[in-house]
Inverse folding.
């Protein structure tokens, strides 16, 4: 099947480099004919994002730091311009916590990092949805990224687990709010993948090995696999689906106990 997303225009927020999950999803949408626009966070990442956007013939609509509402408004104004006023889909692949608090105990989280992590990793999806709604005049699809640490305790995930739980709840609330406009809201719960953001999580190599040995598929997932599932959610293939948290994690979320045949880590 090719051309599933022909004529669809989408904004991709959260590419840092070619290892980003957002890049995997962007490539899959491009392969199916979508026209893409990209934001970047700061000058250092601009240097990474511009060549990637060029690779898929995409637009670059500017710097966006979700802690600064003016930059969100600016990239939406530019998106409106380059897409002629209409947006069909949006990917939010943005999260942040102070690295020092992604190790040790959750209970030691500071108020400052808690509010900042919630703002960047949870509220930003709502802030972006408010702008996207205005451009999705013909319906649309919003997708965000979450992790199993929202559902169960994970070592070192700490405040991010709490922020992801709130993000997943916001998916359900926004799905209900925006459904009458045929705007769908979903999340992919991805298994662990070595990215820039993941490198901040304590013992991440251990988490990767644990998932590899104990998931039903006995391996980790790739950004291309998350990309294909992301394309499904952002396209009309998933037109009857909203409010969903969909696991792309080699099946790890169904496991209740360590695989007794797994090697030691
Ligand atoms: P990444 O480092 O490639 O992407 C994270 C992005 O967040 C970057 O592009 C960064 O610029 C952006 N960001 C952070 N703070 C921001 C701010 N204030 N304003 C605007 N952008 C900001 O890492 P990734 O792993 O691809 O992360 C994408 C999403 O996937 C995140 O929500 C992450 O929590 C989620 N996720 C990752 C994994 C994993 O193991 N890598 C697993 C499940 C979910």
């Amino acid at each position: 099947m090719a051309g599933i997303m022909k004529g669809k225009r989408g904004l991709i927020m959260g590419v840092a480099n070619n290892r980003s999950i957002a890049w995997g999803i962007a490539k899959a949408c491009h392969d199916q004919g979508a026209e893409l626009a990209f934001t970047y966070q700061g000058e250092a990442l601009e240097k990474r994002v511009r060549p990637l956007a060029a690779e898929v013939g995409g637009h670059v609509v500017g710097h966006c730091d979700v802690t600064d509402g003016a930059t969100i408004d600016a990239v939406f104004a530019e998106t409106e311009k380059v897409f002629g006023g209409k947006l069909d889909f949006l990917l939010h692949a943005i999260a942040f916590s102070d690295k020092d608090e992604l190790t040790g105990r959750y209970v030691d989280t500071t108020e400052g990092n808690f509010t900042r992590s919630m703002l960047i990793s949870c509220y930003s999806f709502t802030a972006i949805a408010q702008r996207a709604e205005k451009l999705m005049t013909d319906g649309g699809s919003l997708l965000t990224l979450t992790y199993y640490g929202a559902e169960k305790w994970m070592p070192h995930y700490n405040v991010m687990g709490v922020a992801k739980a709130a993000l997943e709840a916001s998916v359900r609330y926004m799905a209900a709010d925006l459904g009458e406009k045929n705007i769908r809201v979903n999340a992919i719960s991805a298994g662990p993948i070595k990215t820039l953001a993941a490198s901040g999580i304590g013992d991440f190599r251990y988490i990767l090995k644990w998932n590899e040995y104990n998931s039903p598929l006995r391996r980790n997932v790739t950004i291309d696999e998350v990309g294909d599932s992301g394309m499904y959610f952002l396209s009309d293939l998933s037109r009857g689906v909203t409010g969903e948290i969909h696991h792309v994690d080699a099946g790890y979320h169904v496991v209740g106990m360590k695989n007794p045949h797994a090697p030691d880590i």
